[in-house]
Amino acid sequence: MSTTSAVSAAEQLIERDRQLLIHPYLPGATEERVVMTEGAGCRLKDVEGREYLDATGGLWLAQIGHGRAEIAEVAARQMRRLEYFTSFWEFSNDRAIELASRLVEIAPDGLSRVYLTSGGSESNEAALRMARYFHSRRGHEGRDWILARRSAYHGIGYGSGSASGLPIYHEGFGPMLPHVRHLTPPWPYRRELFDGRDATDFCLDELERTIEDIGPEHIAAMIGEPIMGVGGMLVPPDDYWPRVRELLSAHGILLIFDEVVTAFGRTGSWFGAQHFGVEPDLIVTAKGITSGYVPLGAVLVSEPVAEMLARDHGFPVGFTYNGHPTACAVALRNLEIIEGEGLLDRAREIGDLLLRELSSLEQLPVVGEVRGVGMMLGIELVADKQSRTPISMHAARTTSSGARPASWCAIAPIPSCCRRRSSCPRRRWARWWAPCAPCSSACSPTGRSRRHDLVGAPGPPGHRRRPGRRRAPADRQPRRWPGGGLVGARAPARRRRRIRVDGAHPRRAAPAGAAGRRRHLQHAPPPAGHLGGGHQSRRARHADRRL
Ligand SMILES: Cc1ncc(COP(=O)(O)O)c(C=O)c1O
User: Fold this and answer.
1) Ligand 1 atom closest to the CA of 124, numbered from 1
2) How many separate domains does the chain show?
3) CA dist 513 to 46, 69, 499, Å?
């Protein structure tokens, strides 16, 4: 295909997208589209041929990286054998059973049963229903209340959305689920939330008062992310979850851990619960369970809850895709890869390094705090360090669509694409933005990988690039994703021309032909940095408003 016709094919596709697709969180006035067509490791390519570093593992889920052939083979093999059958009633399938066994093996003690779904919101819907149903089956009717936290994100079902503690998910959608109470999030940096007291002490007092106020006999469960992701990578103090667990147990209130983000290695453990040494009654998962190759979720359930659900006619909540054999086969292989490649250790090791190195950013006037655990890191941005005023719409640039600048940035790299320090013989990459620079070709004398400069990102919302027209440097803005990520920062055009995506100098040519180039891309050592980007706008706006 000639260059001109390739460009016009891309333009047509983009135009069709504008006409047909409804994108979450995309302001109507935004013309810009980034149509991805290929992925390998932590690199992506769009229909216009631009390259990106995936700085956030998609939406914090691509633990094993993009484009792994072994996953595609497993899916194809399973589809040829049994692509799907229902798991309702007495029906099951071998893959779902194998996956359940594996999940129970790696789960925190006490979680011995598995309920499979198709994603995070579905899993949370199921978990909330399980909690209420558990009490009702025991004869404790009226235990309906759910305790959650402000700034929490649990998905967009009416149950999970009601438990989410950000107004954007409530306003304009009619009545939410009744009997949900939102508490103060453990966010030590925001001392003003705790009346000058210790964050855990404050939160525990508030929880105790809330339980008294509602009456423990009316409360089914408390739901919480071990580390709040969408709310700003909020890491609670170490004693927060153990003390919450103790208080809830004393009142017979179930603890649901929403581990849609934190499970399967992001924090350096299989589950965030293990990081905090807590045994919840239910754990909700999705995302990293398949590294995003196919949709799947799972709720891990403790024996007493599972026993109640099995009573009489059983648990009357089923999704068509419960126990989907192909999704389960993919999840099994994905978990094998996470274990086989030591990605838990790697997430911890690289995460610690990133946190250490990123902490130097706290010297900047706009950086309030750098925090995180494993490969879940965040940078809180402030307009004024003294007062910790969040960066506001008036204090910084607004986009053409009126979107607000970030008040925090997410960094959630792909664990499989980051190498250990010790695996780099020349030890030249020890700068946080270049953890996976290939020693032989991309370590510059300064230790900085040239590959860092190769990521591309579209221009600001509303800006539509014409074929062949190069944007002025001032137009280069990082692309922000609603889940809190920066896809990449665009390289200066001059450098993009000189340096190829695999970091090699143009003189070290890829094998000829498209297949050769693809092979070259896949085999090139993965690039580095994955510096996450801005968590965007409306969520931040609402969080700010609350403050
Ligand atoms: C903690 C948490 N729970 C639930 C969800 C919802 O998952 P899904 O988008 O798969 O429905 C998300 C999504 O980002 C999440 O971060």
Assistant:
1) 4
2) 2
3) 19, 20, 19
